[in-house]
């Protein structure tokens, strides 16, 4: 994989960059978290300093039709320009269908953003002809969307194969951080939250081989508590998770990895109770960690050198049940460990806590791609750059 700093830009004038501008928005299309935009800025700056024109490619949401205005970047382009500090010109979907990239290569605009790449059928099919309709007009292709690199889509895989290609500056940092987690011999703790065991089963199995301790939180922990014969009331559960949990414990026991669960929780009535005081005779739902669980986490962090956190510890959409995740965010921010944040809703939890990302060793913007890389899966976005 050639580093971006190793590229000779003498004959490079037009550069395509696959970014991840799949930003969260409210009902008025106001961007509520600009993290992913800012992560692309260094690479865009780097290419502009080399006096190249830039074509930006990104997806936004999951449109089911060829064109759906609510998924169009026309709603966001002005905010992109304002947040990034660049004038970004918009290339509409219909314009591309009629004239391809003519507007891009004939204009004097330094940066052009093509409308939602998922409007095009060839994107999801990883189609070579569609890919060539874009890369034929480029001298270099850069993947700066690690968060999308587990998808076998044209702008992630095939386009990078067509011409000279390289990872973006942040993409390279993502790969380095994940390799450090997998390969380091330092004492590691994984803190894993979220709702479903099935979506993280392979990650958990992999982590049992590299971590000394794993703490399970969020709604996922309900399944583990029930597996241990503890009461969980009407708490969110995943059907048929018993065999998966059994496999996790079996592998953890073989490798000497200890699995930790919440010791006390916050219920839907905002009452805090120790796990052993819960009874299935009462109707309740577990929605967050309480204070003793945070103390357990603090002790585990103190015994660790590297900490990976992926997934909220509670129902963070409701401020009443976001305290566990917020306390954890502050705990990790103040620790001496190398803390790696595993993207997804974990970023939202940290933002809710009001903690700057600068307090952590590395913050990934990827969710699924981050987890799949930890599982040692070969990501299409990485394969194409090799």
Characterise the protein shown here.
This protein is 36% helix and 16% strand. The protein has 386 residues and is an alpha/beta fold. The strands form 3 sheets. The chain has a 6-stranded parallel sheet with strand order 3-4-2-1-5-6. The longest helix is centred in the N-terminal third of the chain and has 15 residues, at 35-49. The protein starts with 13 loop residues before the first strand and ends with a helix.
What's the total helix number?
16
User: How widely separated are the two ends?
Assistant: 5 Å
Strand order of the largest sheet: 3-4-2-1-5-6
Q: What radius of gyration results from the CA coordinates?
A: 22 Å
Short description:
This protein is α/β, with parallel strands linked by helices and 386 residues long. The chain has helices at 35-49, 77-84, 93-99, 102-106, 121-124, 128-135, 158-162, 169-183, 201-207, 220-227, 242-255, 291-302, 323-333, 345-353, 368-374, 380-383; strands at residues 14-18, 53-57, 89-91, 111-114, 140-143, 165-167, 188-192, 213-216, 258-260, 264-267, 272-274, 286-289, 306-310, 338-342, 362-364.
Protein traits:
alpha/beta; 2 domains; 16% strand; six-stranded parallel β-sheet; elongated; 386 residues
């Amino acid at each position: 994989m050639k580093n971006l700093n190793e590229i000779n830009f003498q004959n490079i004038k037009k550069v395509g960059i696959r970014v991840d501008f799949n930003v969260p928005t409210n009902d008025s299309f106001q961007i509520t978290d600009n993290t992913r935009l800012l992560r692309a800025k260094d690479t865009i700056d780097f290419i502009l300093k080399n006096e190249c024109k830039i074509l930006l490619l990104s997806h936004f949401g999951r449109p089911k039709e060829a064109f759906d205005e609510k998924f169009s970047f026309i709603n966001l382009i002005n905010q992109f320009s304002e947040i990034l500090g660049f004038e970004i010109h918009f290339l509409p979907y219909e314009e591309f269908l009629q004239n391809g990239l003519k507007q891009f290569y004939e204009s004097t605009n330094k940066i052009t953003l093509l409308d939602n790449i998922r409007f095009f059928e060839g994107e999801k099919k990883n189609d070579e002809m569609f890919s060539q309709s874009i890369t034929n007009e480029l001298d270099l292709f850069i993947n700066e969307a690690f968060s999308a690199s587990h998808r076998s889509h044209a702008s992630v895989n095939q386009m990078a194969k067509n011409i000279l290609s390289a990872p973006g500056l942040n993409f390279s940092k993502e790969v380095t951080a994940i390799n450090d987690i997998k390969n380091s011999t330092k004492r590691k703790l994984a803190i894993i939250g979220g709702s479903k065991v099935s979506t993280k089963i392979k990650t958990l199995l992999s982590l049992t081989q590299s971590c000394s301790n794993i703490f399970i939180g969020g709604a996922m922990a309900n399944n583990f508590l029930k597996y241990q014969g503890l009461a969980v009331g009407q708490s969110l559960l995943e059907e048929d998770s018993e065999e998966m949990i059994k496999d996790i414990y079996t592998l953890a026991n073989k490798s000497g990895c200890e699995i930790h669960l919440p010791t006390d929780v916050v219920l839907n009535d905002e009452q805090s109770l120790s796990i052993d005081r819960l009874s299935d005779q009462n109707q309740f739902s577990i929605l967050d960690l309480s204070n003793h669980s945070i103390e357990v986490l603090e002790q585990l962090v103190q015994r660790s050198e590297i900490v990976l956190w992926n997934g909220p510890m509670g129902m963070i959409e409701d401020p009443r049940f976001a305290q566990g995740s917020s306390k954890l965010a502050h705990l990790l921010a103040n620790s001496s460990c190398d803390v790696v944040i595993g993207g997804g809703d974990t970023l939202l939890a940290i933002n809710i806590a009001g903690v700057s990302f600068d307090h952590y060793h590395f913050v990934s913007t990827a969710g699924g791609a981050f987890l799949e890389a930890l599982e040692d899966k070969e990501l299409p976005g990485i394969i194409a750059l090799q």
